[in-house]
Amino acid sequence: MSNITIVDVQLIDSINVLNKNITLYVFGLIWIAGNIGSILTCIVFRRPPFRKSPCAIYFFASSCSQLLLYNFALLNRILQYGFNEQIVQMNLWFCKMRFYLLYLLMANARYNIILASVDRYIASSRDALRRQWSSSKTAFRAIVGNALFWAIVYIQVIVFYETANNGCKPRPGTSGVYFSIYITIDNGILPLLLMLIFGLLTAKNVRRMGSRRVEPITRNAHAGGQPIRVKEISRKDRQLQKMLINQIIVSLFLNIPNPCFLIYETITTNTYKSAARLQMEAFVSNMTYIPLYLGFALTFSNFMISSTMFRREFFTIIQTKILQRVPVRLARNDPITVRNGTENVVDHLSDKHR
Prior knowledge:
CATH topology: Rhopdopsin 7-helix transmembrane proteins
Strand content: 5-15%
Oligomer: single chain
Number of strands: 4
Largest sheet: 2 strands, antiparallel
Structural class: mainly alpha
Number of helices: 14
Helix content: over 70%
Order of helices and strands: HHHHHHHEEHHHHHHEEH
Distance between the termini: 92 Å
């Protein structure tokens, strides 16, 4: 402490105040927007048009993980830096479980998006046998397997993390360096690389399919003498692919700062750092989580912008659940009209035939 000058103390105080204000207002807004967006996304993907789509199932699972992430990891970060509630320093097991759940939920949110990109690549393949793997049954199995896999992998967090120097960090030494390198690859480089690879492969297949529709794996029986239309299914798939590609682009740009800082931390592990530098690094580390959480929070906005079907289902929910109005199709050629749920539709039809 004797090496700390008055200038260092003033700098540290300024950094603390800035860190606190940014955490309260920026992270706070992300927490609110993320919770609302994740809940609405989950509701929309439980609607009939999306319910059996494997890609939508992956999106739903990712949104559920994001919702838990906001209300555990992000909320804890807001309490720690915004309200100076040092919960992780009070209990060793809370320190371990906090970061275990942080990495577990973040991995599930990211790798479910990656599984969705794999599904879109398979679904857009020319090979009919390969397209059979794009199914809701496969999606449910992959989601469960993905969750179990990362739950086992991140047990190492419980082993390596400990409370020291008023913080919760990996154990110093060789194990700490190993874990920092592992997290840099697994939590940063690998997801971005997989998203980029399967995103490009999917885009390539979509362009190849532009002038030609891929034949479905099976054909349903004709309904009313007319074949079941494949156009709507293809249109939904194209919109899901657009939603996915846009989500990958957002993730690629907003997930870069955090792994870059992790690389810096790994390189400078054995470097002497002053108190002011340590405080500055803590501030920068906290700031790298802004684009990371923002990327998750923008999921709902991305889907609203990317897909007319997603927007239509969202507005239908607003009409039926909040405004208490029921969409009624009066005739084959009539547009869909919305009437108050308490009115009698039969009366309207009777008036039309008088």
